[in-house]
Design a protein that fits this description.
The protein is mostly beta strands. The chain has a single domain, classed as YVTN repeat-like/Quinoprotein amine dehydrogenase (Methylamine Dehydrogenase, Chain H). Helix content is 3%, strand content 45%. The strands form 7 sheets. It has a 5-stranded antiparallel sheet with strand order 1-11-10-9-8, with no helix packed on it. The chain has a 5-stranded antiparallel sheet with strand order 2-7-6-5-4, with no helix packed on it. The protein has a 4-stranded antiparallel sheet with strand order 3-30-29-28. The radius of gyration is 19 Å and the shape is globular. The relative contact order is 0.14.
Length: 346
């Protein structure tokens, strides 16, 4: 990953392709069933935060996604497991290899989770019973960014090692080379962020090129230049109204793209360490501030920051459920949630 922060940096500071296999059936280990209710304890009595401690000191949660049934899936760095949190219980599903910077994660309509697995060079799906199915990328080296599931069930992901935005549908990979985007040289086409809107249009960010790209069925990709030079766009997300939100990692801003117009919002805390972005059903855009130990929100063109309960918190991934509760991963070993009632009042 290019730009200001990668998971590795943050942790260090502390054609048709064959289906590989069905690897695990029912291999779920129940690890923990308790939460630290930070909003109910000590000085954080009105903060609205609930935190779930990872069971092992070596557990480093990274990516996070919420399924329609409320299950919270998360990836873990340097781990053979993928995790989930359901009804207050943390569970681990064993997978065949160790994750290295597992950034791509999304839930589908069946409640299963899709995730990127660069060391194994596969895209995998894990179901509620722990069964994992892997799809081979058939390439010697894989660098993978974010991942999203489209309304038609297709899985889209950023594939920097192939300089493409790639679709997986019915076991078939189709690559869309970003070198075809006008004005881009070979060294500037590595995508990172991926989102799919309600009409099936795919949005991607090109960090080094400072561009947002739209792919629509039957059309050539369209590139949009972001106003701040060197903004290093990272995550991208689309709200229910079709507004596109972009995390400008290098510029310490969040951008809003609607009607071919880009509006940027500066984050009050300098060098906050922006790492992830998600949109809520109520239209708010939420993001993580790893260096500032905060969550942030842009709503009605106003930026608001929410300090986390612990001063050593390092929020990295973020997702919002159907009830507008805001979920995040904390590299120091927690899964956290900001309750919707508190998120709305802030």
């Amino acid at each position: 990953m290019t730009g200001e922060l990668s998971a590795r940096d943050a942790i260090a500071s502390r054609p048709r392709h064959r289906r590989l296999s069905v690897l695990i059936g029912g291999g779920i280990a129940v690890i923990a069933a308790c939460a630290v209710l930070a909003w109910a304890l000590g000085p954080w009595g009105r903060s609205g935060f609930v935190e779930f401690r990872m069971p092992a000191a070596t557990d480093i949660p990274v990516g996070i996604a919420v399924a329609g049934d409320g299950t919270v899936w998360f990836t873990m760095d340097s781990s053979h497991d993928i995790g989930r949190l359901k009804n207050g219980v943390i569970e681990k599903v064993r997978k065949p290899g160790e994750s290295i910077e597992p950034l791509g994660l999304a839930a589908d309509s069946d409640g299963a989770a899709w995730y990127t697995d660069a060391p194994k060079r596969v895209i995998s799906r894990v179901t509620s019973d722990g069964t994992i199915t892997a799809f081979d990328l058939a390439i010697p080296v894989a660098r993978l960014g974010r991942l999203a599931v489209a309304p038609d069930g297709a899985v889209w992901f950023a594939e920097p090692s192939a300089a493409s935005v790639t679709r997986l549908k019915d076991g078939i990979f189709t690559r869309f080379p970003m070198s075809s985007v006008a004005g881009l040289g070979g060294g500037l086409v590595a995508p990172f962020g991926i989102a799919v809107d309600g009409h099936g249009a795919v949005w991607a960010t090109l960090q080094s090129a400072n561009k947002l790209v739209r792919l629509e069925p039957g059309k050539e990709p369209t590139a949009f230049e972001l106003p701040t030079r060197g903004s290093a766009p990272g995550d991208v997300a689309v709200d229910a109204a079709g507004t596109v939100w972009v995390l400008e990692v290098g510029a310490n801003k969040v951008a809003r793209f609607a009607g071919s117009r880009v509006e940027e919002f500066a984050i009050p805390t300098p060098r906050a360490g922006l790492t992830a972005l998600a949109v809520a059903p109520d239209g708010a855009a939420w993001f993580t501030e790893l260096r500032a130990h905060r969550l942030g929100r842009v709503q009605n063109r106003v930026v608001r920051e929410f300090p986390l309960p612990r001063g050593d918190a390092r929020p990295f991934g973020i997702a919002v459920d159907r009830a507008n509760n805001v979920w995040y991963t904390d590299l120091s070993g927690w899964i956290g949630m900001l309750r919707a009632d508190r998120a709305r009042r802030g």
